[in-house]
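User: I would dearly like some help making sense of a protein record. This is the protein in question:
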Amino acid sequence: MEFIDYYKILGIEKNATDEDVKKAYRRLARKLHPDLNPNDKEAHAKFQQVNEANEVLSDPEKRKKYDKYGKDWEHGEEYEKARQAHGSRSQPGTDGSRFSESYEGGDFSDFFASMFGGSSGSGNRGRQAKFRGQDYNAELHLNLKDAYHTHQQTLAVDGKNIRITIPAGIENGQVIKLKGHGGKGINGGPDGDLYITFQIAADTQFKRMGNDIYTTAELDLYTAVLGGEIMIDTLSGKVKLKVKPETQNGTKTRLKDKGFPVYKKEGHYGDLYITYTVKIPTNLTEKQKELFTELSKLTS
C-alpha cells in the first residue's frame, strides 16, 4: 500500500512544532471544508487527507511512530507490536478534541488503518470518526452608548435566534466566545463555537480611551470670566458642573467615576475629562461694544 507523506499534505516541515501542525490544519480545514465546497469531490478527498494527517501528527505517540519508520514503516518491529495490540480495537480518532472543523466522511486510508490498528480497507469500512463542528465568526456593531450599558441582543445563526447578554464596558475589537453555537458536530462530535467580534463606532461627542472618556464643553465669555454653573452631557445623563471664575480657554477638568464602566467589574468606572472652549460673543450691539471698550480701558 502507498506511503502517505502527512507533512507534505499539511504543507509543513518535519521539524514543525505542535503549534505549526495546529495552524496548518486549521488553515487547510477551513479552505477545504465541505460546507464551502459542497460539490467539489476533490476538495472533499483532500479534506479527509488533511484530517488524517492531523490525526497522526497532532498525537505525540502516533507522530513518533510515523517519524521513526516513515516509508519503511511496514518493516518496523514496533508496527507489528502496535498492530497486534490494537488489532481488536476500534479505529482511533473517535475523540474529536483535537479538531476544530467538522469532518464529513468515514474511512481513513489503508495506510492509516494498517499503521495504527484501524479496520478500514476494501470491502470493510472503518467506523466513522467523531469530529467537532466548525467554528463560526460574526461581527456585532454597536455605538458607544450601547457599549456603556449591559443589554441584550438577538443574533440569527444558522436559522436560529440566539439571545446574548452584552456586558457593559465591552471594547472595540474585543472577541467573546459562545460555546456550542457553531456548526453541528459530525457523527456525535461536539458542536463548534461562535466567536463574536465587537465593532464600536466612533462617537461625535465622546472619545473613549480605555475606560476614560474625553469631551468638550462650551463656555460663554461671561461664565468663563465670572464663574457660574453649566449643564453638561455624560453617558449616564446630564450633570451640573461648577465653573471657576477666570477659567481660561482649553482648561481641563475631571469628573471622577463618570467615564466608561470597567468590563465585568460592577461599580467600577473610568473618569470623564472635560476641556472648556470659551466662545467669544458675536453680533454685539453698540452699547455692548461701548462697555467692552470701557472695560478694555480699565484693564489697561
About this structure: The chain has three domains: 6-116, 136-200, 210-299. The longest strand covers residues 212-220.
